[in-house]
């Protein structure tokens, strides 16, 4: 597995952005045909709601994640490293 994405599905993060962020991740993986290389898992609330919505990619935590920021992160991490592996 090339990358692990953990998205907080706790009610605070989910309501404040991770519902949309989850959709964005799923369509990003579909569009770029990289579903097989990415493990996407939901996390329970980790008591860091104040800095949410929270998403962790490969052990790096991202806070206050909105769609625009997430797209930027996904392009940098997932597409750049996928190209390196080719
Ligand atoms: S709901 Fe995500 S940290 Fe609490």
Can you give a write-up of this model?
The radius of gyration is 12 Å and the shape is globular. It has a single domain (3-80), classed as Glutaredoxin, CATH 3.40.30.10. The longest helix has 21 residues, at 11-31. The protein has helices spanning 11-31, 67-85, and strands at 3-8, 38-43, 55-57, 60-62. The model has no long low-confidence stretch (mean pLDDT 93). α1 (11-31) crosses α2 (67-85). The chain is of the alpha+beta class and 86 residues long. It binds FE2/S2 (inorganic) cluster (FES).
Largest sheet: 4 strands, mixed
Net shape: globular
Strand content: 15-25%
Q: Considering DSSP H and I runs of 4 or more, what fraction of the residues is helical?
A: 40-55%
Q: Which residues form runs of ≥5 with pLDDT under 50?
A: none
Q: What descriptive keywords fit this protein?
A:
86 residues; Glutaredoxin; alpha+beta; binds FE2/S2 (inorganic) cluster; globular
Task: Give the gist of this structure.
This protein is of the alpha+beta class and about 90 residues long. It is built from two helices and four strands, in the order E-H-E-E-E-H.
Task: Please write out the topology.
Blueprint: E1 3-8, H1 11-31, E2 38-43, E3 55-57, E4 60-62, H2 67-85
Parallel strand pairs: 1-2
Antiparallel strand pairs: 1-3, 3-4
The structure holds FE2/S2 (inorganic) cluster (FES).
Residues 8, 10-13, 45-49, 52, 54 line the site of FE2/S2 (inorganic) cluster.
């Amino acid at each position: 597995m090339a990358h692990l994405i953990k998205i907080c599905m706790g009610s605070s993060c989910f309501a404040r952005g991770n519902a949309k962020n989850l959709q964005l991740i799923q369509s990003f993986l579909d569009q770029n045909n990289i579903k097989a290389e990415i493990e996407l898992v939901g996390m329970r609330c980790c008591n860091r709601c104040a800095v949410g919505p929270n998403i962790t990619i490969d052990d790096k935590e991202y806070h206050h994640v909105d769609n625009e920021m997430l797209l930027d992160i996904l392009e940098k991490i997932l597409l750049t490293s996928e190209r390196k592996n080719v």
